[in-house]
Each structure stands twice: as C-alpha cells, then as structure tokens.
Amino acid sequence: MEELFYCCECQSMCTTKIIEKPQTFKVKGREITLIAPVRVCATCGEEILDEEMDNKTLSMFYDEYRRLENLLLPEEIKAIRQKYNLSQVSFAKLLGFGEKTITRYENGAIQDLCHDNMIRLMESVDSFVMIWRERKGCLGYREQIEIDSRLRTYNKARIHSTYKAAQTYHSNLPNLYLIQGDIPNAG
Question: Whole-model pTM above 0.90?
C-alpha cells in the first residue's frame, strides 16, 4: 500500500516518489554537499516533508562531517565502550564526562575534538589501564571487580601472544641465516 503525504502546493494528500538530488547543509559551520534522497509530490514535484527520511539525511551529513574532521562514528564509540563491557554512564564517568555525554554521542550527537581524543585513547588497553588506575573509584565495587577481571584476561592474552611471537621468531632463526647467506660455523 502506497503512503500518502500532504502536498502544500496541491493542498491535498498525494502520492509521492523519492528522488536523489544534491543538498547542502551546514554542520558546525562547515558547509557540506551530498546527494541525498528527497520525497516529492508525484503530481506537481513539490518537496514533501518526511520527518523519518529527513532524520536519516541529517545523520548522513553528520557522518560526513565526522569523516571530514576525522572524528569517531557513533558505532565506533560504542565498540570502544563495549570492549570493556561498560555502560554508557560508567564510560562517561570514567572519562570525566557528564553522565549522558556518551549516550548522546552514540545516538548521533557530534563530539568535540577533545572528547574524541579521550575516547580514542581508551581503545588502547594500555591507555585504558592508565585512566582506570586513576579513576576507577568513581564506579561501583561490582563494576570495578568485573573490569579488573577483564583487564587480567586482556593481559594474559597479550602475554600469550608475545610468547607465541617470540617462539615463532626463534624457531625461524636458522632459516633466516640461510636466507641471508650467513650460515653460522657449526664446527
């Protein structure tokens, strides 16, 4: 069943179609032009308000702004937070942000560069541990135990990975001599 939308030009409910056309929008003072979908009246061609489509188009402009400014996308912020199994509120507290800040960023609000840099740092386990040691007291005891356990797991995995890499390196040493032509004197 086809959806009808109100056309101001025709002054009636009309069938519509979606076309793509260049649209320009300013995001934080930066003018961005994209090819975006627009709903138009099938009768007169007048643009029709479609709140759902307009919200998706706005998200496209925000994502393009993030790409141009090299900022994390909402799903990247969420992935970093989930890496440590933190709630949005706990992640914000740990970073020293307001309680709703991470929620807003994951829902599409554009973060400033300073917040983006702090979130990026948390991607590295080493950076996370450094912040964790200083700020873990801002979280509840149960959450502290869970995160400490997760960090021990990461540390064990890293030690195991380093050990395996060293084993591989040392087991290939005789082959490296052969490749380089520097065969050690066996006798």
Answer: no
